[in-house]
Fold:
Amino acid sequence: MKKLIKNILIIPVAMLFFTACQETLEERCVRECKEYTKKKCPVLIATDVYLDSLTFEPSTHLMSYYYTVGGVLDDAEALQQHDARGMLLKELKNSSNLKVYKDEGYSFRYVYFSEKEKGTQLLDATFHKSDYQK
Structure:
């Protein structure tokens, strides 16, 4: 009998504990973006392309990636000629790493800055659910 009463008291408390520890997808995304930025950025993604930071805005469900590019890509016209926007969209559509966020309809923004001209924005591409689920 004591064991039954003990279980009746422990189970609700344990359930409360486990549900209190769960975070929403938005909270998880904010946390993971901050942790990745703090621990790994800047990180070399490809030749002359560095990921500087990741951010997530819960109210708009916008995940933003900020890059710095150098070399031959450090030119807005070069990025346009290589259809950087189209390539980013194709990568986003094919990305299995972002599936959980795409399934929730999140938006993705990619911002590229010049290495040689600090602060100069070369490309700003934002994709919404209607773009990547066509």
Q: What stands out?
A: The two ends are 60 Å apart (CA to CA). Residues 1-9, 13-20 have pLDDT under 50 and may be disordered.
